[in-house]
Batch of 2 targets.
Target 1
Amino acid sequence: MRTPLVIGNWKMHGTQAVARELAQAVRDGLKRPRGVEVVVCPPFTALPAVAEILKGAAVALGAQNCHWEAQGAFTGETSPAMLAELGCRWVLLGHSERRHAFRETDEEINRKVASAVRHGMRPVLCVGETDEERRQGLTFTVVEGQLRAGWAGLASEDLARCVLAYEPVWAIGTGVNATAGQAAEVHGYLRGLVSELASKELAQSVRILYGGSVKPDNAQALTQEPDIDGVLVGGASLQAQSFITIAKKSAARSGASKE
Ligand code: PGA
């Protein structure tokens, strides 16, 4: 049973005032979301303000990144313990902007995933190929490598807390989303891989989100695919109304979970 999950990644947007206003509007627009679980990931500086606004709300709080150590001499980093203390139940890891702009390696991402789980958070491991890799027919090879490395060494009870996000790099922030068919193909591949890496049960229960230019007008077609269990939304999550619409359109039709 997989309840669709919709996550808003605000990236490096939102002063305190903007974040508060956006969080309030999302909270008020999704008071009792049916058949969908909703998370927002504001920038670090806005987390306390947004946590306050979301107290007792149906929308959960997540972070966009974390370090793997609980504390230490790591100037400029934020630990999972610090995030958990603020009420973050989720954390995005291995986002393509982290991999490409900040040169995060698979090994570092793996340490982060393991640490996030240890601190009681649920990591969302992002994987995806570049335009060039897709043209060369390397899509499956790339996402497989990222998934194997990102989950390496994790016990099955840890993996049960994990979510995957397929985010083709060429679709992020470009306005060109993967078609439902293109995404479904990769989601199916990833689910098969989870079965091999972990178990059939985990492959059935793990949620695999799609991300990359998700908008109110394409969310439904994407999430209607049986293997697409929700969406990770960047740009369109900065507008409360479009994010709310995406969340509603991603909800399981009957109000029930996917099987
Ligand atoms: P986008 O970003 O929706 O703006 O394409 C998605 C993401 O980076 O997670």
Target 2
Amino acid sequence: MSKLLDQMNELAAQVSVCRDCMLHLTRDKAVPGEGNVRTKILFIGEGPGANENMTGRPFVGQAGNFLNHLLEIANVRRQEVFITNVVKCRPPSNRDPLPEELSACAKFLNRQIELINPLVIVTLGRFSMARYFPLQRISAIHGQGLWVNDRLIIPMFHPAAALHQPSLRSAIEHDFSLIPGYLEQAKERFEPKPEEPKAEEKPTEPEEPASGEASQLSLF
Ligand code: SF4
């Protein structure tokens, strides 16, 4: 097993027994996140819901099915990316996470970002967007990729919000369709194409033999 995978598994083990905020009292299973630890794209949602709390996996159930549909639009396979949340334990009755819960849990997400080191982060919903754009409204900046500390951050509506408000559905589908273009943009910034060789380094064309030489060669 690779060192990176070991580190991610160690972090997941810490999350599963964490008691650093009140959410540990009401959880069944903590949900550290899952996916490809070597991904270039990290998705950050809000917090586990009822199905996630039961299974210990992020984005299962209805919102998970819709996320799978959105990933297809983005031409991304779910197993290629990593998916997690800003809080790893379910807020009771799906209430919003409290500031002290967000603050207590931030160390785990920070470490995940540090280890995965993605080129692109897609935030799903208000709470993950607020990590990067605390003063913005999601309705104003959804779908816009913005550079923050050398990462391309793309705020998106939360898939569950689009399920509850059908008018958001086409907006989130459109936003996901932009992901391949943003990923290319991020790759070009950090993985520049090899430079064209300079003029003097370009291989020179073999010179045409002088007519005499050509006629001499043709003699053999
Ligand atoms: Fe620990 Fe985060 Fe769960 Fe709170 S939400 S108990 S900080 S893992």
